[in-house]
Design brief:
The protein is of the alpha+beta class and 462 residues long. Helix content is 37%, strand content 24%. The longest helix is centred in the middle third of the chain and has 39 residues, at 140-178. Keywords: Metal-binding, Zinc, Zinc-finger. It comes from Mesorhizobium montanum. Residues 101-156 are annotated as: Disordered.
Length: 462
């Protein structure tokens, strides 16, 4: 998906683009037989379809829609179809006049406005597709103007996000005033309205989190939903307060507005780099309301003296169906990972994969977890209380059912007296089985099991 990654859109725009990848939205899709050009017409809300063109060589684009986002969702959808379903395009030798006109007027990267104006007169499609000659270095005034424009955009974004958080605070206060019971029952519509407002004010990541809240509440038992709602609303208040105190913090910007690109993370001096041997603990795949599928792959560092985890996140359109992952639970490999800068580094990128390794047992983390299995969660929350899922290694224990047929993980050591509820259903063959160590995600209320070590070997629980 190189085209989409290079455009670096926010998740909200990506979700909107995913909904436009259906063939019915594109009555016309064409590509040039020899040049790296694709174009099409997308039916919008008006009577005339939007005309969309994309240059795959340098990611230049043009769309006739009135959107203020650059690139707009129509460009992203066209690029997405070109990357995932190139057979959808009819190959032609002739390009429409509107594509030729755009090519004649556009400025290639590295080309000055004067060069573009001179070369646009009478330019043919073949001439427009030729690489532009190297432009002279920018003078000091041009560099200063460009940097000033960047600072202005950053300031405008910060002001918009600040206004979004003000509206979020007022919205949360309204929900508490109206009562949590009513909020749970009407959470879908209420969350949808505030999420749309946050998108308008450029708090796109936060909007996606709120948009998913109703689905998370409905997955719980009825008596658990009010507590889960107040817990999540409290985390949102803490996140908004933290952003106001440090709006330039990389982690907070990622959780509130937009994330960095892969290239930015790999080049970041603040990113933690770890070369080690890793095991794939399990996967967590969720279909989001914005039309995207979130695919989280959880890894365990097998060389670290204390439990260290990493999560690889990938997003794809739900309309594309189930996509095969690069890893399978139980896989072991050597790799160099680069972690996104954060208080609790978890999300990572595989910078370089160095080969596979043989399967085996986990390191003896049980001794570390013997004192308090949830000590790691307490430290995790102290550093970033606005986060939810914390990976933990649990000591020896077993899984049992209560009188309501709910699954619980029970510590084997009686002096702990710890029993934690398990999310979802559990295979009956696991009940009562002695588990030497278990990897799971704990959110303060429920465990999501990933994998266990037992006398029968490794067990995949995700």
């Amino acid at each position: 998906m190189k085209t989409i990654e290079a455009l670096a859109p926010d998740q909200a725009s990506l979700g909107a683009a995913a909904k436009l990848t259906k063939r019915s939205n594109w009555p016309r899709l064409e590509a040039h037989e020899q040049l790296p050009l694709i174009w099409g017409e997308c039916q919008g809300s008006g009577s005339n379809p939007y005309r969309v063109a994309f240059d795959t060589s340098d990611h230049g684009y043009k769309c006739t829609c009135p959107s203020r986002k650059f690139p707009c969702k129509h460009i992203l959808a066209l690029a997405w179809i070109g990357a995932t379903a190139p057979a959808s395009f009819a190959r032609v030798d002739q390009t429409p006049d509107w594509v030729n006109d755009w090519l004649g007027r556009r400025r290639k990267p590295g080309q000055s406005p004067t060069q573009a104006a001179v070369s646009s007169e009478g330019k043919s499609i073949d001439e427009a597709s030729r690489p532009a000659e190297s432009a002279p270095a920018e003078d000091a005034a041009a560099t200063e103007r460009r940097e000033a424009a960047q600072r202005k955009r950053a300031e405008d974004t910060r002001s918009a996000v600040s206004a979004a958080l003000d509206e979020l605070d007022q919205w949360i206060a309204d929900q508490l005033r109206l009562g949590l019971a009513g909020f749970v029952d009407a959470s879908s519509e209420r969350c949808r309205r505030i999420a749309a407002r946050l998108v308008d004010l450029k708090a796109t990541a936060l909007a996606g989190r709120i948009d998913e809240l109703p689905a998370r509440l409905m997955a719980l038992r009825g008596e658990e939903r009010p507590d889960a709602a107040i817990r999540e609303l409290g985390k949102l208040v803490l996140l908004a307060k933290a952003w106001r105190a440090a709006p330039d913090d990389a982690e907070l910007k990622r959780l509130v507005s937009t994330s960095e690109t892969r290239d930015q993370i790999l080049a970041s001096p603040d990113a933690v780099k770890v070369e080690s041997e890793w095991e794939v603990l399990g996967e967590k795949i969720e279909t989001r309301r914005d039309g995207l599928v979130s695919h989280a792959t959880w890894l365990l560092d097998l060389k670290s003296p204390a439990p260290r985890f990493a999560v690889l996140l990938d997003f794809s359109p739900a309309s594309a169906g189930r996509r095969s992952g690069a890893f399978a639970p139980g896989d072991r490999f050597k790799a160099r990972l680069v972690f996104y800068p954060s208080r609790n580094p978890l999300r990572a990128l595989v910078a370089e994969r160095l080969g596979d390794t043989e399967p085996g047992n986990w390191p003896d983390f049980a001794a570390d977890a013997a004192g308090d299995p949830l000590a790691a969660y307490a430290a995790f929350q102290d550093g970033a209380p606005w986060l939810a899922d914390c990976p933990v290694i649990l000591p020896a224990g077993a899984i049992a059912l209560d009188e309501k047929q709910g699954a619980w993980w029970q510590a084997a050591n009686d002096r702990h007296g710890i029993a934690l509820p398990v999310a979802g259903s559990v295979n009956n063959t696991l009940l009562g089985l002695d588990l030497a160590a278990t990897a799971a995600l704990w959110n303060g209320a429920r465990l999501e099991l990933l994998a266990s070590q037992s006398s029968m070997g490794r067990l995949d629980l995700s």
